[in-house]
C-alpha cells in the first residue's frame, strides 16, 4: 500500500460513538425528529477498544427501536465506502454483521417493515406483574415554554416464566453494551433472575400505550439457612429519561418489593457504577433519616453501633457495609466545618475506616515474615509496603474523593 492509499484508508476511520445514534420511536413522525436521537456513552464492547468503524466516509448508523415492543430497525448510510480493488484488498467493516453478532438479535433494515410494526404498539402488554405506578411532573427540555407536564410511570416485576419476558429482555439488554462498562448478558435459563421493568404510560387517540424507560436485573442468592440475598446486577435508565429521578424511583420499587419479605436477609449491589452508587446512597440516606438510630444525637453520642446495623437490616434490608457508609454521609450532614475540632474528629473517624484494609494487609505480611529469609522480606517490603508519606498521601486523597461523593448525595437530599 503506497502513501496515498494509506492516507485514504486512515481518512475512512470513524468514531463509532459519533456515528451511532438511537431513537425510541412512538409514531411515524418520530423518524424525522432529530431531538429524539441519543448517542451511546461507549462502543468498545461492540466495535473494539479503539471505538472506531473502518471503511466509510460520512458514516451514520441509525439503530432505532419501537418504544414499546422494541422492534429494531438498522439504517447505515455513507457518502463513500472503501473499494478493496483500489485499497489493496482492504475491506470495510461489515456493520450489520458486527451488530448482529454482538447484540445477538436480528436487525431489520427494511423501513417499510419497521413502519408497519408501529401499528402493533397498541397491542403491547408489559411482561410481568404491575408493582407500582406514580406520576412525575416533567418539563420538556426541548420546549421549556410548554411548562410542566404530568407523566405516568409503571414498574413491573417479572421472572423468566412471565409470558414474553425472555424474548423482550433479549432486545432490552442490548442497550447495556452501549451504556454500562463491562456489561454482560445474563443466562435467562436461571430462574433466580428477577426483572424490574419501568415504562411510561401515555394515551394517543384514547388508547393506552407504553414506552420503555429502563430496567434492572436482580439475582436472588441463597443465604443460610432458608433466606435469600437479592443482588442488583445491572440497572439502566435510558438517556431520554435520565435526570428526572426515575432511577431512584425504580430502585425504590425494588426496595419496596423486597423489604417486606421476611426471608430476605439484605439487598446488595454488584460492582455499582459511581452513578448507581450515588442513587443508592441517596435513597438509603433518605430512608435511614426516618430510623431512630440514625438521628443526629445518636450519630455523635454513640458513633457507629450494632443497633444501627440491626435497624437498617431489619427495616430496610441494608447490609452492614452500606449501613456504615450511610452513617458517614449523615454524620457529615451534621458537621459544622467551621468547627475545626468537630470536622477533624469526623475526618479521623472516616480515615480510620479507610485505613483498615491497609492494616489488615500489614498483619498478613507480618505473618509471612516468619516463613521468609531476610532477603525475601526486604524484597517483599520494597514491593508491597508503602512509605509513611505515600500511605498518608493516598489516604488523604481517598478521603477527599469520598467526601466529594458524600457531598453530592447531601446536595441531592437538600433539594428534596
Automatic annotation (TrEMBL):
Tell me which residues make up the Histone acetyl transferase HAT1 N-terminal domain: 13-181
GO annotation, biological process: subtelomeric heterochromatin formation
Q: What is its EC number?
A: 2.3.1.48
Q: Where is the active site?
A: 270
Q: Mind telling me what this protein is named?
A: Histone acetyltransferase type B catalytic subunit
Quick one: where's region Interaction with histone H4 N-terminus? 219-221
EC top class, in one word?
transferase
Localization: Nucleus
Keywords of this entry: Acyltransferase, Coiled coil, Nucleus, Transferase
Residue ranges occupied by any Histone acetyltransferase type B catalytic subunit C-terminal domain in the UniProt entry: 280-332
Q: Name one GO molecular function term.
A: histone binding
Family matches, as Pfam families:
HAT1_C, Hat1_N
Site features described as Interaction with histone H4 N-terminus, chain residue numbers: 193
- Provide the catalytic activity annotation: L-lysyl-[protein] + acetyl-CoA = N(6)-acetyl-L-lysyl-[protein] + CoA + H(+)
InterPro entries reported in the protein's UniProt record: Acyl_CoA_acyltransferase (IPR016181), HAT1_C (IPR048776), Hat1_N (IPR019467), Hat1_N_sf (IPR037113), Hist_AcTrfase_B-typ_cat-su (IPR017380), Hist_AcTrfase_HAT1_C (IPR013523)
Record-stated family:
Belongs to the HAT1 family.
- Which residue spans adopt a coiled-coil conformation according to this UniProt entry? 385-412
- Cited CDD domains: NAT_SF
Q: Which GO terms describe its cellular component?
A: chromosome, telomeric region; nucleus
- Look up and give the organism this protein is from: Polyplax serrata
Q: Which SUPFAM superfamilies match?
A: Acyl-CoA N-acyltransferases (Nat) (SSF55729)
Amino acid at each position: 500500500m503506497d502513501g496515498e492509499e494509506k492516507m485514504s484508508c486512515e481518512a475512512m476511520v470513524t468514531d463509532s460513538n459519533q456515528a451511532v445514534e438511537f431513537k425510541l420511536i412512538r409514531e411515524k413522525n418520530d423518524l424525522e425528529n432529530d431531538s429524539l436521537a441519543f448517542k451511546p456513552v461507549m462502543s468498545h464492547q461492540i466495535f473494539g477498544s479503539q471505538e472506531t468503524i473502518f471503511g466509510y466516509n460520512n458514516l451514520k448508523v441509525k439503530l432505532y427501536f419501537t418504544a414499546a415492543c422494541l422492534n429494531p430497525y438498522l439504517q447505515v448510510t455513507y457518502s463513500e465506502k472503501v473499494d478493496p480493488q483500489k485499497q489493496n484488498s482492504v475491506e470495510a467493516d461489515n456493520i450489520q454483521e458486527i451488530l448482529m453478532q454482538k447484540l445477538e438479535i436480528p436487525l431489520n433494515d427494511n423501513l417499510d417493515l419497521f413502519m408497519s410494526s408501529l401499528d402493533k404498539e397498541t397491542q403491547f402488554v408489559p411482561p410481568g406483574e404491575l408493582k407500582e405506578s406514580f406520576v412525575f411532573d416533567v418539563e420538556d427540555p426541548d420546549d421549556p415554554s410548554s411548562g410542566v407536564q404530568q407523566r405516568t410511570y409503571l414498574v413491573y416485576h417479572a421472572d423468566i416464566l412471565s409470558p414474553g419476558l425472555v424474548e423482550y429482555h433479549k432486545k432490552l439488554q442490548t442497550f447495556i453494551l452501549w451504556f454500562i462498562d463491562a456489561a454482560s448478558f445474563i443466562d435467562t435459563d436461571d430462574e433466580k433472575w428477577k426483572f424490574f421493568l419501568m415504562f411510561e404510560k401515555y394515551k394517543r387517540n384514547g388508547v393506552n400505550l407504553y414506552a420503555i424507560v429502563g430496567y434492572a436485573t436482580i439475582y436472588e442468592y441463597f443465604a443460610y439457612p432458608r433466606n435469600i440475598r437479592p443482588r442488583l446486577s445491572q440497572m439502566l435508565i435510558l438517556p431520554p429519561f435520565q435526570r428526572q429521578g426515575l432511577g431512584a424511583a425504580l430502585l425504590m420499587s425494588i426496595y419496596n418489593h423486597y423489604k417486606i419479605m421476611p426471608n430476605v436477609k439484605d439487598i446488595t449491589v454488584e460492582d455499582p457504577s459511581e452513578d448507581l452508587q450515588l442513587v443508592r446512597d441517596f435513597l438509603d440516606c433518605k430512608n435511614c433519616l426516618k430510623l431512630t438510630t440514625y438521628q443526629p444525637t445518636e450519630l455523635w453520642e454513640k458513633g457507629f453501633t450494632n443497633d444501627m446495623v440491626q435497624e437498617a437490616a431489619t427495616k430496610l434490608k441494608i447490609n452492614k457495609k452500606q449501613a456504615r457508609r450511610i452513617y458517614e454521609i449523615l454524620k457529615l450532614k451534621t458537621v459544622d466545618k467551621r468547627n475545626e475540632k468537630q470536622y477533624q474528629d469526623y475526618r479521623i473517624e472516616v480515615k480510620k475506616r479507610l485505613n483498615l484494609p491497609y492494616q489488615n494487609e500489614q498483619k498478613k505480611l507480618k505473618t509471612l515474615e516468619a516463613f521468609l529469609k531476610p532477603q525475601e522480606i526486604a524484597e517483599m517490603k520494597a514491593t508491597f509496603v508503602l512509605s509513611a508519606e505515600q500511605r498518608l498521601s493516598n489516604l488523604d486523597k481517598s478521603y477527599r474523593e469520598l467526601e466529594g461523593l458524600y457531598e453530592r448525595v447531601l446536595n441531592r437530599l437538600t433539594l428534596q
